[in-house]
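retry 2 of 3: previous attempt timed out while embedding zinc ion. Reduced batch size to 1 and resubmitted. Inputs unchanged:
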Amino acid sequence: MNGEVMHGHTAAHEGGTFIANGLADGFPVAFADGFQVGIGARDDAPCVETDDPTPSLFAMVAFWVRYLASTIALPVFVGSWIEDGVTFIEPSVRVMSRDAAVAIGDAFKEACLWDWAASRCLWLDCADCRRGECSDPHDDDGGGES
Ligand SMILES: [Zn+2]
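retry 2 succeeded.
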């Protein structure tokens, strides 16, 4: 489990998506298409919120995600992001359909999902984002439209 790599990448890039099994365990990934959706609200999912992230904390979440992945018929990853100095680490799944991604995001009350092709967040409280037709960058750090 490569907690050092996840910890370092998150600090350098304010977040990341990481492989949670196999030879590349713990290494960051990026995709040309599909959507990444957090599932930290699942009862059996590890979701960490801390102002003191450590490599061992990342490794702990990744270890848990390996077991979670055996119960989900989708590719499961470790996702991280930093917001207002707080680091969040949670499992995420990758799906190819935006409709499926939105449905999963709604089910787990996620604020946004990641659109790999557009390289941006889609905010679930924005109707245009949900349709994949939003031109608002939503870079106000507050999420969706007011
Ligand atoms: Zn939007």
